[in-house]
Amino acid sequence: MAITTILFDCDNTLVLSEPLAFAACADLSNAILDKYAPATTHRYAGPALQREFVGKNFRALIAALEEKHGFSMPPEDVGGWVDMELGTTVAKIKAYATPCEGSMEILRELKAEGKYQLAVVSSSALPRVLASIEKTGQDAFFPSSRVFSAASMTPPTSKPDPAVYLQACRQLGVLPSECVAIEDSRSGATAAKRAGIPLMGYVGPYYDEGQVEVDEAEKVLKEDCGAKVVMHHWKDFRECMRRMEA
Fold first, then answer.
1. For position 51, what pLDDT does the model report?
2. How far is Cα 10 from Cα 8, in angstroms, rounded to an integer?
3. What keywords would UniProt list here (predicted)?
4. Are 43 and 30 in contact (CB under 8 A)?
5. Backbone phi, then psi, for 119, in 5-degree steps?
6. In what order do the strands lie in the sheet with 229-231?
7. What sign has the CA pseudo-torsion 153, 158, 163, 169?
8. 41: which strand partners?
9. pLDDT tens across 79-126, in order?
């Protein structure tokens, strides 16, 4: 079946937002541990939090903290923490977010060609995703009707749950098999795989961490998540898409 639709992850795939987000939520994560797991001595800085929980929205991150550190947050408290994290993160994104290198040029070309339907499919809350694409000017390529958020679904979900991908396919009127998903993290790539969507991995931002991290991310995307190809830079998109379509 011909590819008709490209589904882009947002954070660290289109927009370099993850370092900003994890810097914002590290203090909140430590405050959560102070309140609900005071005997736990472990505390997080932004980069360490990102390495451990990349690809998760804050609601899912709270659940992961609960499991790792052996505490249980009352369900009625979760929403308040999620709201605090969202407000702090959106403010940082509106001030500092930049597009992933090379992404704007490819998006301009794809829009001009009109060959593919383009959409954003993210784990993050809708206000954060919209802030990211508006700050970088990518809202010119993605009208709000083509921006899908797992955290803003009813009920909220998070990748690796495939629900947000399946919702996007339904609303766009396409089959998963005629789409390509572009993802940088295990959780996002797993969501695409579970939805039956062919996967293009992306490891560009990992170069800021070092070659070991790039190699490990590529291995995860290929071997664990079934990526057909892995893109190292947006300048490689055309060749990677050619291989996907072949």
1. 82
2. 6
3. Hydrolase
4. yes
5. -150, 155
6. 147-149, 117-122, 5-8, 179-183, 199-202, 229-231
7. positive
8. none
9. 999 999 999 999 999 999 999 999 999 999 999 999 999 999 999 999
